[in-house]
Amino acid sequence: MTHSLHRFGRYEDLTGDYIVFAMPARGINDAEAVEVQKAFLRMALEHDPVNIGDAKRGGEFTPQVGLNPLVHWRRNTEPDPQAVVDGVEAPGIVAAVFDEYGRMEDFVRALQAADLGVSINISALADRAHDCCKACGITRHSVEYSLGFQGRTDLLPEKSVLELSTMCGHGTISFGLARKMVDRVRSGRRSPKEAARTLARFCVCSIFNPARAERILEAARGRKK
Amino acid sequence: MWIDPKLCVGCANCVAVCPMEAISMDHRTRRAQVDLDECVECHACYRGMSRERLNPTAVRLVRRVAELFRLRFDPEPDVCPTSAITPQELTWPRTVRRAFSDVLVTHESTGILGRGTEEVKTNDVTGRLGPGRAGFVVELGRPSVGARFHDIQRVAMALASAGAVFESKNPLTGLMTDPTRGTMNPEILGEKVLSAILEFQTELGEVEALLQLLGRVAEEIDTVMAVGVASRCDEEGRNPLEAILPRAGIRVLRAKTNLGLGRRSPSGLPPPAGVPPEVPGGVHPSGPSGSQEGEVVQ
After folding, report:
1. Per-residue burial over A112-151, b = 16 or more CB atoms within 10 Å of its CB, e = otherwise
2. Deepest of A89, A197, B94, B246, by most Cβ within 10 A of its Cβ?
3. First-residue to last-residue Cα distance in chain A
4. Does B110 lie in the same domain as B50?
C-alpha cells in the first residue's frame, strides 16, 4: 500500500493519522482471507476508527453512485461501516484509519492477540509505529520509508491542498477538488465536516482520514490564500 | 473519458474533480469538454461522482431561469446531474493510461494487476526482501501531477545504467523493451498516466549512491516523483536504513511498518496445496510473489 506512504504534512499534524491494514500474500495465505479480512474490520470497529475500507469495494464514505430524481433532495451521504464488512468478497487489502494513537495501539494489541495470520502493517509516523511495536512487544519485520517528493515540486499546490490531496495516494482526490472544498469552507458554504466527507468519497481504498481533513480545513478557514 | 454534450448541462462539477485538470468548460457551447491528451482514464470523475438522471433540458431551463433572476445556488459538488460522463472503449496504446491510472482495473497491457507489487507489505510471509537488501519504490507523477512514459524511461535508463535490476513482476517492467537498459516500448512514450512505479532491489551499501542519482535525474524530468526505500529489520527490530538515511541528509517522517504478524497459513490450518512448508524467519524459498489477484497496490 504505497499509496498510504507519502502523506504530506508536518510532524505534529501527522500524529493524528494512523493507518493499519491487513494483506494476505497471494497464493500463500489467502485461502481464508475473506473471513480474516472481515474479522479485521469487525475488530477495527470496536476501536472507533475514523474510516475503514476494502480496497476492492470501497469504504464507508464510498458514494451511492446511481441516483434518480426521487433522491435529489434526500441523498444519503451517511457512512455505512457495516456495509464495508459485509461487502468483503475477495482477498485483498482492508484498512482502518485512526486519528488517535491510543486507539491505534489498542487495535494492534487486539490484532496481535487474535493472531489472524495475514500480514499487518502500520502506515504512520515511523517513530510512532515503532513506539507501538515496542509497547505491544512486537519486533518489527520490515520498514519502508517515505523520502518525500522530488523533481518539479513547483507543480505542487499550496500546503493545505497538498495535505488533503495526498491522503489518497492513488491521486483520485484532485488538487482542484481539495482547493474547492477549502474555498467552500472559507466562504461558509460548507462545514469542515461536510467538506471532509465529500473528499473522502473520492478515495477508492478509503484510507482517507476525514478527522484530519476536518482539522486541516478548519485551520485553512482562517488563513489567507 | 468523454462528456456527452447532449446530456451535459454545464454545471462544471466535473472540472474540479479531475486529477489531471483535463476537463474544462467550453464557454461557447456551455458544455464541459475533455482534453484527451491530458486525460489519463483514471475514472475518478466517472466513479467518484454520483450520477443523477435528471432531464437535461429541464435542468438547463432551471439554470437559465436562475441566471436570469441573478439567483445563486450551491449544488452538491460531487454529482453529475445528468449522467453525462461516459467511459470510452480504449485501444492500444491508450489502454496503458487506464491500466496505470484507474486503481480498480486489471493491467490490460501487462496482464498484471495494480501499479506495483506487494513490496514489503507481506515480506514477513514472502521474504521477498531479504536481510542486507534495500527495496526501492520510485513513483513518477505522484502526487497528482501525472507522468509521460518518456520521463519514466529517462529515470529507468539512469537507474539501469547504475546497475538497478527492476522487479520482474512490476507492470512497468513488463512494458520495457530491455529491462537491463530501462528502455520502454516506443509506442507508449507519449502516453500519460496518473503515476507509475519503478521498483528494484539493491544492496544496502548502494543506497546512498542511488539516492544521489535519483536526486540528479529528478532535475531532468518534467514531473514529480515520490521515493520510498525499504529494508528488513534485525532480530532486535532495528532497521539499518535508520542509520543510512540521515547520513544522506534525509529526515524521515512517515513509514510503512510490517509488524511481522503474518504466517504462511492463517487460522492454524495447513497451507494450500503446492505451497512449500513454512521456513523459519518467514523467508519464502520460492522467492517473491506478485500482486494479489484483483488487488489494488501501487
Report:
1. beeebbbbbbbbbbbebbbebbeebebebbbbbbbbbbbb
2. A197
3. 33
4. no
Q: How far apart are the CA of A166 and the nearest CA of chain B, in angstroms?
A: 7
Q: Does any CB of chain A come closer than 8 Å to the CB of residue B112?
A: no
Q: What is the pLDDT of residues A168-183, one digit of tens each?
A: 988 899 999 999 999 9
Q: Which of A160, A164, A174 to mutate to test the interface with B (most CBs of B within 10 A)?
A: A174
Residue-range definition of the domain harbouring residue B14: 2-86
Contacts of A23 in chain B (CB under 8 A): 118, 121-122, 292, 295
Indicate the pTM of the whole model.
0.90
| Paired sense of beta strands A58-59 and A51-54, if any | antiparallel
Task: Choose, out of B78, B83, B144, B199, the residue to mutate when testing the contact with A (most A CBs < 10 Å).
Answer: B144
Report residue B125 as a C-alpha cell.
510471509
- Give me the pLDDT at residue B116, please: 66
Residue A201: alpha-carbon gap to chain centroid:
11
Average pLDDT per 10 consecutive residues for chain B, totaling 298 residues: 96 96 95 97 92 92 92 86 94 93 69 64 93 96 92 98 91 93 96 95 96 96 96 96 95 96 68 45 34 36
The residue type at B258 = N
CA distance linking residue A161 with residue A168, whole number of Å: 12
Give the domain CATH number at B8.
3.30.70.20
Give me the number of domains chain B comprises: 2
The answer as to whether B284 is a domain residue is no
Residues of A in contact with B213 (CB under 8 A): none
Is residue B256 within 8 Å of A11, Cβ to Cβ? no
